[in-house]
Each structure stands twice: as structure tokens, then as C-alpha cells.
Amino acid sequence: MNNFSFLSTRKEYRSFSKDCTDAEAAYHTSYDSCVKLVRTAVDAAVKWIYATENKLPPENLSDMIAGVGLNKNLADKLHHCRKAGNAAIHNEKEFSAIEAQECLKNLFEFVQWIDSRYGKNFSPRTFKSLTGDDDLLQTELLGMKLPTPIFAASGTFGFGEEFDNFVDLKRLGGVMVKCITLKPRRGNDGVRITETPSGMLNCIGLENPGVETFLTKILPRIKDKMNVIVNVSGSSIEDYGELAQLLDVDGVAAIELNISCPNVKDGGIIFGTDERQAALVTDWAKCSTSKPVIVKLSPNVTDITKIARAVESAGADALSLINTLMGMEINVHTWRPTLGNITGGLSGGAIKPVAVRMVWQVAQVVNVPIIGMGGIRSAEDAAEFFLAGASAIAVGTANFAEPSITMKIADDLSKYLRGCGLKNIRELIGKIKRDA
Ligand SMILES: Cc1cc2nc3c(=O)[nH]c(=O)nc-3n(C[C@H](O)[C@H](O)[C@H](O)COP(=O)(O)O)c2cc1C
User: Fold this and answer.
1) In terms of residue numbers, what domain contains 385?
2) Terminus of the chain with fewer CB atoms < 10 Å: N or C?
3) DSSP strand pairing (325-328 vs 343-347)
């Protein structure tokens, strides 16, 4: 027996287990309390390890962490949790959802380590908030099992890695990375973005490093971190085919054909506004790759259902809609257009009703799944798209205002589904009621 009789294995185990559950529960009420409780749980867990191993612990807890045989990375994470917990205890700062989640994640990793070493099997019953109640959101799309039906929309999320500190990328259905073209593009000159009353106008002009750099430098970095959907654009049908072929590699989950960029002449919109051209591009891409092909539709058409039907007949595996609506702003002091490109694409809250209407119309005429997007900023916004017939949704402009918004939407969507008495998001798809 050691002299530390306060370290009774059973007592410490109980307190450690309870502290984990409390930290987890506190996440939903106060991030500061959550961070404090994570620290308490880490301390309790470390003491429990010493008790279990019947080892004399060093006096100070930092040294105790160093002595339990963790790898440096995990030990550093636990030191971080303790530091954050101390700051919370001394009211030195207010913690955000992301910071609280990071602490919980670190604790979770520690618990998994304990599980694997001592066979205690804590993990399944704790830490629900790290995965949300994601059983409610789990779904299948394009042959992939997805943790949530929530995607990040192309051009608003970089290559995903930029958001690594803000979101759990593995919790997203996938990231539609910034549009890739055959050759690098520097994009449009002049002002490229301007805020509008409920959204933004952009005319980036498909700036990107080109497919070669994407394949050699970027994809290897990101492919294990998320489902990578590569958005591509070309100035000819053959370009789309070549891109689809080049991207038929490990690490690419699907290809999204951008036939709807309104900001450059050769950005695909010529194909997205003509049924025949849209079908040809789709067919060409499909024949050039074994990857699922998603076709991204433009709202800048009179009847979107015609284009949707045409690309479905040409073999599209899924449709995504909508891209931005063509818009323009004039500076009344200079009498000049605000944007360098004169016109730009309108996105954000203002376009949501148009997007919901188009998803609803398209859902009635196609059988392939629809990824709905346009102005989604909350779980309620997302729910509208599912009710209209979308099988998944993507968040775009809202990421600029709140980089972790996709996680909040996932959490809130679970709550919404539970409130509706539903067991899975699939039960919501297309359930709009038509009677008054
Ligand atoms: C700054 C910016 C850049 C975009 N770049 C692309 C792009 O490269 N390819 C593409 O298909 N869509 C692009 N989009 C369109 C978005 O993916 C999305 O379809 C559209 O913005 C509507 O969704 P939102 O209102 O949630 O942003 C871009 C949008 C914005 C705001």
C-alpha cells in the first residue's frame, strides 16, 4: 500500500467517470464550466492511473501527467486542458464553443487511451457532444456513409484545412473545395467582394493554383482530413473531361462540375444555362472518371428543371444548387460599379427563398439526390431545404461571418429533429406539406 490512501481506485474511478459526464453536460450550458470540469476530470483520471498502478504520484499534477506514460502530443494536450481550466477558474477569459470542444476532445482522447490501456470502455457512453447526437444526422450519399449531411460550399471554405481550428472536418459530409481549373488562374482584378444588405456580391474569378498543384501539393495534405469534393470549371467540354480524368485518384470523394460561375466568361455558365451543353459536359465528365459526378446548377435561368432533367439523363449522380445569382452594385458617389468585374454573384441570406424554391422545383422532377445551398445560416434554414427535397445541404457565405457555423448547424439540427420526434434526418427529406 502506498501512503496515498486518498487514491482509492474505486473512488477515483467513480469521480473520474462522473467528472467526464459533468464536463460533457456542462458544454450545453456554459463553456467556461465545461473547461473547468475538463480540468477536474483530467486530474481525477491521472490520479486514478496512479492508484490503479499502485504508484507513488509526484506532488504536482503537471509532473503526474508526465509520469503516466503518454506520448508527448497527448501529454501536451492535457497540459493545455489544465492551463485552460485554471484560466476558467480564475475568470481570466471567457471560453468559446470551439475552445470548450477542443478541451473535451483532448479529454476524450485521454479517455480513449485509458480505455485501450485498461479496458475500461468509457468512450461509448460519454462525450456525445463531440459527435453531437449525430446518429440523428448520419446518412448516405453517393455510396458514402456520412456523419452528417452538412457540406461546406465551394469557394467559401478554401481547401478545408484553413478551417481545421474551427470545425471538426470529419463531422462534415464533405468539403467542396475551391474551384479547380486546368491551368492556374489569378482571378479578376479590382474589388472582388462587397457586402449587401443580406449577403454579399463576389467576382473572385475562379482564382486557383491549377489542377497539377492541387494534385501534387494540396490533395496529399487534405485527403485524410475530410471527404474532398473537387469543384471544377473549364472553358470547353473537353476541359471538364480532362479535369474529371486527372482527378480520378485516391483521396477525391467526388467531382462537382461548376457549370454555373457567373463571374468569368469561361467559368462554365455558358454550359449551365443551356440544356444541351449541360448534358454534354455531364456526359463527357462521367465518361472520363470513375468518381461520382455532382453537377452544380445555376439559378440564372428561366426554368431550372429543364437543366436538372437534362443533366440527370446524361448521368449526373447528384445535383447541387444553387450557385450565386448574378447581381451588381453601383457606387453613387463615383458613379462607378463597385466590383472590378462590374457584375458579381449574389450569395447569402438574401438568396435563400430563391434557392429553396429551386430545390423544391428540381426535387419534383429528378430522382438523383440534391445538395441544397443558398443562404443557409441556421438549422432552421437547413431544415427548409430538407423539407423542400434536398438530401444534404451546403453552407457557403455564412462561413465568412462565423467559421464554425457548420458545427452549430449540426448541433441544432439534431435538436430540431429530436424536437420533431424524428430518428434520422432522412425522415425530413421532401416532407413539405401542401395542404393549408
Ligand atoms: C466568395 C465566393 C466564392 C465562390 N466560389 C465558388 C466556386 O469556386 N465554385 C462554385 O461552384 N461556387 C462558388 N461559390 C458559390 C457557393 O459555393 C454557393 O453555391 C453560393 O454562394 C450559395 O450559397 P451561400 O448563399 O450559402 O453562399 C462561391 C461563393 C462565394 C460567396
Assistant:
1) 134-428
2) C
3) antiparallel
Q: What CATH code is carried by the domain that includes residue 138?
A: 3.20.20.70
The predicted-structure confidence for 81-94, as pLDDT tens digits, reads as follows 999 999 999 999 88
Ligand 1 atom 4: residue of nearest CA: 155
Instruction: Please check whether residue 249 lies inside any domain of the structure.
Output: yes
Residue 86, domain member (yes or no): yes
Domain co-membership, 126 together with 144: no
Distance between Cα 329 and ligand 1 center (Å): 18
Question: pLDDT, tens digit, for every residue of 330-380?
Answer: 999 999 999 999 999 999 999 999 999 999 999 999 999 999 999 999 999
Question: Whose Cα sits closest to atom 29 in ligand 1?
Answer: 155
- Work out which ligand 1 atom sits closest to the CA atom of 394: 26
- Residue 154 shares a structural domain with residue 115: no
> Greater confidence, 65 or 158?
158
Q: Is the pLDDT of residue 125 over 80?
A: no
Assess contact for 347 and 395: CB atoms under 8 A: no
Centroid of chain to Cα 403? 10
Residues 152 and 289 in one domain: yes
Stretch 178-188: mean pLDDT: 94
Global pTM value: 0.75
| 207 and 116 assigned to the same domain | no
Q: Out of 66, 98, 130, pick the residue that ends a domain.
A: 130
CA of 375 to the centre of ligand 1 (A): 10
What distance in angstroms lies between residue 425's CA and the mean position of ligand 1's atoms? 24
Q: Which of 323, 356, 377 to mutate to test the pocket of ligand 1 (most atoms within 8 A of CB)?
A: 323
Cell of 421: 420526434
Residue nearest to atom 28 of ligand 1 (CA): 155
Read off the pLDDT of residues 266-295 as tens digits, 9 standing for 90 and up: 666 778 899 999 999 999 999 999 999 999
Same domain membership, residue 249 and residue 110: no
Q: Which of 34, 261, 287, 420 is catalytic?
A: 261
Nearest atom of ligand 1 to the alpha carbon of 398: 26
Query: Is the domain of 126 the same as that of 174?
Result: no
pLDDT tens-digit series, residues 145-157:
999 999 999 999 9
- Residue 249 pLDDT > 70: yes
Answer yes or no: do 178 and 101 share one domain.
no
Asked about 261 being catalytic, the answer comes back as: yes
Query: How would residue 120 be classed by pLDDT, with cut points 50, 70 and 90?
Result: low
Query: For ligand 1, what atom is nearest to the CA of residue 355?
Result: 22
CB atoms within 10 A of CB 346: 25
Distance 152 CA to ligand 1 centre (A): 10
Q: Are residues 87 and 154 in the same domain?
A: no
Among candidate residues 295, 294, 351, 357, the one with its CA nearest the CA of residue 324: 351
